[in-house]
Amino acid sequence: MASHTPGAPVFAPPADLPEWALRSVDLANPRLGARALAASDDFFAEVGRMLNPEPAQFVPGKFDTNGKWMDGWESRRKRVAGHDWALVKLGARGQIRGFDIDTSHFTGNYPPAVSIEACVSDTDDVGALLAASWTEILPATPMGPNSHHLVTCASTNAWTHLRVNMFPDGGIARLRVYGRPVGNAATRSSTDQLIDLIAMENGGRAVSWNDASFGSSVSALLLPGRGMNMGDGWETRRRREPGNDWCVIELGVPGTVEKIEVDTAYFKGNFPDRCSVQAAFVNGGTDRSITTESMFWQTLLPEQNLQMDAIHTFTDQLAQLGPITHVRFNIFPDGGVSRLRLWGKARA
């Protein structure tokens, strides 16, 4: 019998994210260290697929030994009382603003409802987590087929682990957990060790930017490791008018900067010609007011020439400004940068 060749994959459209999600990072991104730890059942589709940062896809005609291959987490049809669940470790301890529970491509097999619980744990041991004290941060919420479900979270606590409950069974293509890492207490109190003060895992976040037409969001600048390709970074459109592009970033913890790294990995014909960094210690204000003030901050790093596909390290060029809380990263006139690192010492 001739084998059937699967058709071309169909990718799910992106979610129309509200402002609270756009100003957040996905705490369930494996690039940040998130991972699925266990599930009550993932017979049809392995639970780890639910955290894939890529859009969910449907491949016509693709089957595995258990049935139709699905891109997400899918349990078998439950024939007993109860519901299915999955344990997820967040990439960083963080405050959660909301979720995108994505059922793309799940039509007759989506869960009728989903709830999410959270806890704080210093272990990933499944037995210990199942015995832990859990707090419901999203009550049972109706789901629909083939849709992004953007729901807010009222909790203001910081969490490390989630338990995702499907009532009673079914499939979730993707889970995005939008929030802000709060950093590590030991990191915050450190005074001797050099740390990346704006790293996402240390609580750094993108506050504002003038453009992000290509590639990932500005938050990609703060991810661990080097960029994987030209889409893994901050890239602006081609500037056709005077001026330059910029973004404002809040440090995870106030600190003094001793070294700056600007990585243009994979950006070759579109890297910025130059860059500079301004900085300030900010007390109070909103993201909008801080953005306005940033135009007048002191210069931490004067304009420096950049090269394609390279890590640029600056130490002697840095001004001694003392502790800072925010930076404005300027690129001239436009282009793409993969990662930005501010190595320094945390200061209260």
TrEMBL record:
Its EC number is 3.5.3.4. Pathway: Nitrogen metabolism; (S)-allantoin degradation; (S)-ureidoglycolate from allantoate (aminidohydrolase route): step 1/1. SUPFAM superfamilies: Galactose-binding domain-like. Gene3D superfamilies: Galactose-binding domain-like (2.60.120.260). InterPro entries: Allantoicase (IPR005164), Allantoicase_dom (IPR015908), Galactose-bd-like_sf (IPR008979). Residues 33-181, 203-346 form the Allantoicase domain. This is Probable allantoicase. It comes from Parazoarcus communis SWub3 = DSM 12120. The gene is alc.
